[in-house]
Amino acid sequence: MSQRNRWFAAVLLVAGISVAGCTSGTASSDSPGEEPATVTAIDGSDQLHKIQLTEDAAARIGLTTDTVRTLPSGKQLAVALGAVLYDQDGATWVYVRTAPLTFQRQQVTISRVTGNVAVLHSGPTAGTAVANVGVAELRGAEDGVPGE
Q1: Mean pLDDT, residues 76-94 taken together
Q2: Which CATH fold topology does 3-143 show?
Q3: 98/100 Cα distance (integer angstroms)
Q4: Residue ranges of domains in the chain
Q5: Burial class (CB in 10 A: 0-12, 13-18, 19+), 2
Q6: How many angstroms separate the CA atoms of 35 and 28, rounded?
Q7: Across residues 101-116, what is the average pLDDT?
Q8: What predicted TM-score, i.e. pTM, was given to this entire model?
Q9: Per residue in 48-70, pLDDT tens?
Q10: For the packed helices 3-20 and 135-143, what is the interaxial angle rounded to 10 degrees?
């Protein structure tokens, strides 16, 4: 992994941890004992999981989605750079929405980054909804990092 990618991954990790620790100071509307996220293993994979958030959890992390789009050339796909997650090995991922408030991590290959847009060499099809705010928190939930 290049030095630039290591720094970028480190900054994303620190930002995600910082945001995950923030609270609004208001009472949670989750039912007592209800977990903000339910994580379920995906059959045939020991690394991928389905993450289902409660409405309150999605609101607390400011979850928003973006759509994988086709560039004007019609030949390449792109997502908002905020949707891209770099793991500890430098692999790139997005969280694809599979149902309301439900996401699954999918690996992508990035051709280039232009401003706030990641141009994809491979990844989800055009029109697929991906998380673009709350990505670090989804990864934390998937990895079992305790939240509030």
Answers
A1: 96
A2: 2.40.420
A3: 7
A4: 3-143
A5: exposed
A6: 11
A7: 96
A8: 0.75
A9: 789 999 999 999 999 999 999 99
A10: 80
